[in-house]
């Protein structure tokens, strides 16, 4: 028997694989450093923060393929990493985290954390209204992001593109979805969370929270003492608690 197969399980890393936001086009790798650091400090997990290819030079499915490759790289090294893998993502990265559930068995992931994720690219941006007035993503930018990411000829209801249309039995047993009240992406994310929670016959924990008074990307611009800062601290604490379940 290989000596690697007999390693004490305590010597293997428990991983959180994270995917940053980007609008599918912006090089924002490293933007989640504070989140990744806090998750590592609070939960003892090693955090793999994944950089992926960007549109329009690399449209769908390039970035999702990179996300899938990162997870398979972990799964193919059981001597280094235990198999209680969790995944997280912000904005476009949340889209990838949710979409990965269509590429792996549901039991692959210990938990899934999606923070203000892009969930439904099929529905036109002009039909999406934030629950609360505020500084939402400009309409022209939403259209541009979607056009860059999804080439002509793809069905935008493909659950790898729009996880909103995925079969809810594909999601892991622990799911956390956080939305922002002044974000036009909030309603679709919240609706998906409710759909997952209602899946019959599955013992699943779904945590869904809307951060009031907050815009898309609220945690990245948060200043201590503000509503956004409090929402950031609450969101990160909820994520750590989910990972420790």
From TrEMBL:
Gene Ontology MF: a single term: hydrolase activity
InterPro entries xrefs: AB_hydrolase_3 (IPR013094), AB_hydrolase_fold (IPR029058), Carboxylest/Gibb_receptor (IPR050466)
Domain Alpha/beta hydrolase fold-3, residue spans: 16-218
Protein's UniProt name: Alpha/beta-hydrolase
Pfam families: Abhydrolase_3
Keywords: Hydrolase
Source domain of life: Eukaryota
